[in-house]
């Protein structure tokens, strides 16, 4: 079948939305690090609406920091790709035109730096996942021993890490007298703007204290809350899109109708009119971030680990299994919501109900294994922060502890049938080794307490924390995830 491209886009069926502007006129105002599915289903869609409104300064040059796969898929399509929005009412398709370049950093770091130092560039945004910031999850500090940071300090002009590219780009633009870039993190991190600011400032200072001072004084790092569920694309998805378009798209992205982007409005060098595209600008981003990370992502990780161990492949399948919806409802209402900051006028019960409905969306095959990735980088902000607040108030946290216990058993590397789990995590080997010597639930919890980069120094010294989690580990080991969750009882 013919490939989607500039030459074939005019053959698309009427019902497929296409770029409402002349692509050749786009300027490279945005450089995005981490050209993955989430960015292409989220920020790129908001930016597409801003481009359609006529402001063509905001084309995006996409950068892959690791793999050439996205570039190999999109380059033959002139950067065009399909967003497929799906729910019980069927699929709706939009072809996005705002990605005007696709770079692969390991192949040509100089090309990435040239895009970041381009006179038209004003924003560098990131979706590099939690592990892409080379930080210590428990504290947010730069991990100076991280192999990529060690490399970037030795080879600052040919960086590998996101912080390395950001620091070198800031230096190049400063020395060329160009307007400073706004650095816009779009990853699921608490106070993501402050997190990326801290690692960039620390790395810049290690290179040159004057550069660190320049970052402090001149670079804006607005925080954001991002939300859209975007499962990994499968070959069946590609067939579905090809049948709808009548053209092959090597890497469409599949997503839900819901989308939300809450952004701190701090863009000294300008930004697209994202507000007209549906983005919420507020100074209360932190409250939205905490709410979303703890309610959505905390529940997601709980469903991922317990669902995987119970033998369920997807989130919707897990939600349909006995006890899981009640577990998530109780987690959200009884354990997480009391820890959330007050958001005046916000309908929290409705938000919780919407989250559970989104998890149940049968049209999205969101794999538990996909969400289970990088747990060591996720549980600090998704579960541990909430547990700390519950401990401080003397309140119970059995459901949170069950989700954490699920991760501990998952990360040990074997499922309930003794089959090895393909655990993807920067700390996977060390976690598996630590768990290997633990015979009892108490020993397993104690083994993980040695990971200060995940648990910090406070939780390992809390007997209430260790005992509560060990109790849930014991329940999972004795009864399995399915029976333990079912036995948790109604919310
Ligand atoms: C998921 C998130 O893979 C994961 O860890 O929990 O990608 C989740 O789908 C998004 O944060 C939803 O906004």
Give an overview in words.
- This protein is an alpha/beta fold and 491 residues long.
- 46% of the residues lie in helices and 10% in strands.
- The protein contains 20 helices and 11 strands.
- The chain has helices at 37-41, 43-52, 69-74, 109-116, 147-154, 162-175, 192-207, 209-218, 235-245, 285-309, 315-320, 324-336, 348-360, 368-371, 375-392, 398-411, 428-436, 441-448, 452-455, 463-486, and strands spanning 30-33, 60-64, 81-87, 90-96, 99-104, 123-126, 182-185, 224-227, 253-255, 260-263, 280-281.
- A 5-stranded parallel β-sheet has the order 5-2-1-6-7. It has a 3-stranded mixed β-sheet with strand order 4-3-9, with helices on both faces. Strands 8-10-11 form a 3-stranded mixed β-sheet, with helices on one face.
- The longest helix has 25 residues, at 285-309.
- The protein is globular, with a radius of gyration of 23 Å.
- D-mannonic acid is lined by residues 188, 227-229, 296-297, 300, 370-371, 378.
The CATH homologous superfamily of the largest domain is called NAD(P)-binding Rossmann-like Domain
Q: Strand arrangement, largest sheet? A: 5-2-1-6-7
Compute the average pLDDT: 97
Count of DSSP H/I helices: 20
Distance between the termini: 51 Å
The percent range for helix content is 40-55%
User: Which CATH class of the largest domain applies here?
Assistant: Alpha Beta
Radius of gyration: 23 Å
Main sheet summary: 5 strands, parallel
Named at the architecture level, the CATH assignment of the largest domain is 3-Layer(aba) Sandwich
User: Rough shape?
Assistant: globular
Low-confidence stretches: none
